[in-house]
Predict the structure.
Amino acid sequence: MQLSEALEQIDGMIDLVNALMLQNQPDSTEQAIRQLRDGMEAFAGLAQRFDASQFTPDNTARMHTMSERLTQMRGHIAKLSAMTGQQLAALMPEQAVTHTYGGTRQPGGAASVARMYHISG
């Protein structure tokens, strides 16, 4: 396999992930991201076997462009993840433990006896 062929495959995977993100298909996007990650790992292993002559200025520039695209994609995924987390929090607010177990003022602390089983007196 030539370096240009390997770069073409990785570039195609990046295009696929971008297209799926734009189509708002989370399951397919997740699967494509896994394939991209696996492809990048395979490429990292193959890159050591390529001749130095294959690292032409065109191929090097292409790798830099792909790196920039991956950086942008990572930022986009992080933003989508944050927005999804906020939407989920708005739909399903976090329940306080104090309803059942009683509360303590210390973060992370909880009462030792559930309030519904506590016998007063």
Q: What stands out?
A: The chain has four helices and no strands. The CA atoms of residues 101 and 115 lie 5 Å apart. The chain has a mean pLDDT of 82. Helices lie at 3-22, 26-47, 57-91, 98-101.
